[in-house]
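Pair request: fold both.
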Amino acid sequence: MKFDVRIESEDLKGALKTYIRRRLHFTLGRFGAKLGRVRVRVEDIPGAGDSLDTSCRIQAELLPAGRILRQEAVDRNLYIAVDLATERIGRSFERSLVSARAVSSAPRETSIGSYSRKEALP
């Protein structure tokens, strides 16, 4: 898995990057070859009143189609935002794979040719 983790705050980079990578590996690791590049962006955004909320945005590439799945979670607690976003991207990824399998395994109509029977009029 290729992870691109971007964190706005300098003092959180070391421990938070490790935490995010561990959460992503736990959530998305089972998808293996179906998973392309994963991008994570963590930033502070203005919340209600004087508080700051933390936004965690995750983009994951579904292979071989190259479809990009996106999820975002916002919470006052940084680790809760990361947990929610990783959980959501895992569910989105699983749903996408299930729907792709359903489409590929659906019975296809085949045309054998047309057959018509002409009946003689009395």
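--- second member of the pair ---
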Amino acid sequence: MCYVYVHADPIQYEARTRSLRINNVVTTIRLENLFWDVLAEIASREGKTTNQMIATLYEELTALREDNPNFTSFLRVCCLRYLSLPRLDESAQELAVLRTALAPARPTALSH
């Protein structure tokens, strides 16, 4: 069982610090590379850069709760919650897009 975990690429759990601007304040966040990768995936799905996504999360969290004692831990939890969401396989995703994009046309009255 532990083989999957023990044989993880060490680069995945190597921490990296990034600087970003939140509310016009430059700050740094230190996360493991795997979390940065997941945040990049979330941001891509939202059509944002990773930094924009993190700033949005911070702003929305601050609007909900005035106190953000450990924002880095919050980001890790966001990643885990994202990874725990049900996944659709590629063909199911394509079908879901078609279903939402191709709404049936409304019948029109024929005029003679």
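Observation on the second member. Strands lie at 15-22, 25-32.
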